[in-house]
Amino acid sequence: MTIITLSVGIYLIATTVVIAKDGVTFIEFAKNLKIAPTNTMIQEDQHPGYPAMIWGTHTIMESLNKNESLLNLIRSAQAAALISRCLAVLILYFIGKELVGAKFSFWAVLILIILPKPAEYGSDALSDWPHLFFLAAGMWLLIHGATDAKLWMFTFAGLAGGIGFLVRPECAQIVVYGMLWLGLQLLWSKRILTRPKAAVALVLLITGFAVTASPYMKLKGAFFPKKNIGNFTSDISGDIVEPLESRLVSNISYTSSVVPLEIAKAVGELFENIGNALMWFFLPPLIIGIYIHIKERNLLHPKKFFITALIVTNIPLMIWLYCRSGYISGRHILPLVTFTIFYIPTGIKIIASRLEVKSLRENQRKGLWFIILIVIGIAICTPKLLRSSHNDKQIYREAAKWLAENTETDASIAVPDLRISFYAQRKGLKYDTKTLPADIQYIVCEPGREDIESGMIQLIVLEDKDHKRELAIYKNVRQSTSIQ
C-alpha cells in the first residue's frame, strides 16, 4: 500500500501543471513564516501547521541540493502532503483492521489510494492530508486508549488533535469525541474505565490539546480564528469591531435563512460531492456497508463509537457549512469519505453474494464476483487518476513563462488567477473589481475585451487549443488604468 501510494503520488507530482489556488497561499505563508513568524501568523487567515511543514521540508531539500528555486518550494509543499498521505494510509489500515478486519481494511485502503480526488489532494500543495494524518493518529490513539484502558494514549491523542488543529481547525474534533466517550464513562452504568480513570484521562486529553493549540488561540484571540468563531479578544489586526446591533441583525438574518429548503440543498450537495469522490461506482457499497454498521449493536464500544461519532458529527457540520457559506467542496468531505471507506468492502461483498446467487453457475469460485467488482472499480478510477492535475490550466504556465522572460523583476501584474504571477515570480494583483490601481504595469486577460482602452498595448496572445482558451498580455502605457 505504501509503495502504491508513493508511486501514484510521485507520478502526480511530476505531471502537475499548476498547483491549487490555496497552494500559493500556503507557500507564501511558509516563506513569510521564516522571516517574521509571529506577524505572519497574526496576519494570515490560514493556520500555520502546514506552512511550517513546507518550511521544514524545504530546509531539508535545500541542504541536499542547495536549490532555492520556486520549483523547489513547490516540490517541498507537495512532498509534505504526499508524506502525510503515506503515513495516514498506514494508520488508516490499522484503524480499519480494528473495525472490519485485516482483509477488508486492505481492500478499503486500496480503494482510497486509487480514488482520483483524494490522490490529487495528496500530491498538491494542500493541507488536507497533513490534517488527515493527525486526525487518523488521534482517532487510533483514542480507540486503543479506550479499548486497552491506557490513559497515556489520551495524552497523545490530545497532542495529535492540538498539532492537527495548527494544520486545520477541524482536527479539534478529536478532543470532542474523546470527551464524549469519557463523559459516558463517567455517567453510564456500563463502562470500560472506572470513574477515577475516566476523569484522569479526560484531564490528560484536554491538557494535551491545550498545550499545543492554546498558544495559537491566544495569539489569534479566538478558539477557531479561521471561521471567526469563539472570539475572546478584540481583533488584534486593528480592524474596527462591528457594532453589536449590526451583528445581531446579521445573526437574525442568517438564522431565518436556514430553512428546510437550504438544508435539502445542502444534503443534495453533500451527496453529490461524496458520489463524485467515490466515482459513483463505490457509493452504493458505501451506503450498504454503513447501513450494516449502524444495524449492528454495541455502537458504544470504542472500536465503533469514535467512527460513528465522526460520521454523525461531520454530516451536520457539512450542512452548516453549506447554509453558512453556500457551498461544499470535495476537500470538505474528504474526512467523511476517508473514515467511512472501511465499509465499502462490506457493501461490495453483499452485492457480490447476490450476483453469485443469480449467476447459478456450478463450481463457480467463491468470492470471484467480489474481485470482479473491485477490478471494475479500479478500472473506472485509473484514467482519471493518471490525468495531470489542473491540466486545463496549462495556459497559465505559458503566460507565467512569458512574463518571467519579458518583464522586469519588480513589475506589477494584474491577473485573473494569482497562480500566473506566482509562477512568473512577479508581484500580482487579482483583479475582480472594476478599477485597477495606477501602478499596474501589465494585465493578463482574455483578448479583445472592450474594457481594455487604447492606453493598453497588446503584447502577445497565448492559445490553448485543447481547452479552447486564450489569454492576452497587455502593457499599460498610461499613468492611470481603469476598467469601466
Can you describe what's shown?
By secondary structure, this protein is of the alpha/beta class. Among the domains are: 2-126 and 245-348, no CATH class; 391-476, no CATH class. 64% of the residues lie in helices and 7% in strands. It contains 20 helices and 7 strands. The protein has helices at residues 2-14, 21-35, 37-43, 49-65, 70-100, 102-114, 116-121, 128-147, 151-167, 173-187, 195-220, 244-257, 260-277, 283-295, 302-325, 334-340, 344-359, 368-385, 394-406, 418-424, and strands at 222-224, 229-231, 412-415, 427-430, 442-445, 456-464, 469-476. The strands form 2 sheets. A 5-stranded mixed beta sheet has the order 4-3-5-7-6. A hairpin with a 4-residue loop joins strand 6 and strand 7 (469-476). The longest helix is centred in the first third of the chain and has 31 residues, at 70-100. The protein is globular. 40% of the residues are buried. Mean pLDDT is 87; it is low at 236-257 and 479-484.
Mean pLDDT: 87
Largest sheet properties: 5 strands, mixed
Beta-strand share of residues: 5-15%
Q: Give the low-confidence spans.
A: 236-257, 479-484
Indicate the overall shape.
Answer: globular
How large is the radius of gyration? 25 Å
Topology (elements, then pairings):
Elements lengths: L1 H13 L6 H15 L1 H7 L5 H17 L4 H31 L1 H13 L1 H6 L6 H20 L3 H17 L5 H15 L7 H26 L1 E3 L4 E3 L12 H14 L2 H18 L5 H13 L6 H24 L8 H7 L3 H16 L8 H18 L8 H13 L5 E4 L2 H7 L2 E4 L11 E4 L10 E9 L4 E8 L8
Parallel strand pairs: 3-4, 3-5
Antiparallel strand pairs: 1-2, 5-7, 6-7
Features:
single chain, 484 residues, alpha/beta, 7 strands, 64% helix, disordered C terminus
